[in-house]
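Onboarding guide, step 5: your first structure request.
Type a short instruction followed by the sequence, for example:

Predict the 3D structure of this protein.
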Amino acid sequence: MSSVFLSHAHSDKPFARKLAADLRLAGHNVWIDEAEIKIGDSLIEKIRDGIDQVDFVAAVISSASAKSKWVTRELDIASNREIKENRVVVLPLLVERVPLPGFLEGKLYGDFCDASSYEASLKALLKALGPAMKLSRPAPDEIKRLRKELAEAESALKRHEATARGHEALALRGKSKKLVEAIREANKKFPQHAPINNTYAFEVADMPVTLDYLLWAIAKAEHRGGHPLEILISIEEKWADAKAMINAYSDLVNAAGATTSVKRSTKGKSAVFKRRSRGAKRNR
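The system replies with structure tokens like these:
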């Protein structure tokens, strides 16, 4: 049994999911981003971990993947492993008639361009992956039951997403377009901050302040003895907004099971930040 990382562009997701299902049915372990990366994970670290822990990287090659920075990065990591370990790691799988990337030239590839040759190409890929214990297919009634449960789960997920979008729209109502854009960008990078940003993010001197930026500024202030954000918050008297954001984040961390020392440490940083700013204001 081998473990496989499926490197693919977003537009090739339908093919990747079908291939992942067939490889799993054949008894192999498959790492595919939508299943393995959870909210709050570092995308780069999780992908690197995934590539480092598998036997092979199956690269779905198409016109879209050739332009994808993520696919290029994944293949760079995998190619370095191939050189270091002196064995085949990258398995190119063509789904479109496009040239192979330079560092894959000369490699044998799986030809999945024609749907009619899918089974033959899959068989060749399975041979390259090596032996595995094939899973038995469920009975037709079992498949029918599983599909019904899956449909119900997908329906519940869609309702949840619709409700979440409604809550977000309500929380962002009244905020400037610039602040809303900053909040959404920050929430993409730090999804765990969304409950705080949606409610407590604010602007100072026409500059959006999201939780990640405020925490970064506080850390800089502690190490360097000051940060421009301190002065701006003091000038515009936005300390109540900053304190509300930090307190809400402390409560969130505490509720998630963190120790009270983490909560006190976060509040302590905010207090140091504020005391320095007050001193700076008096000395101007």
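Each response can be followed by summary notes, for example: The chain has a mean pLDDT of 79.
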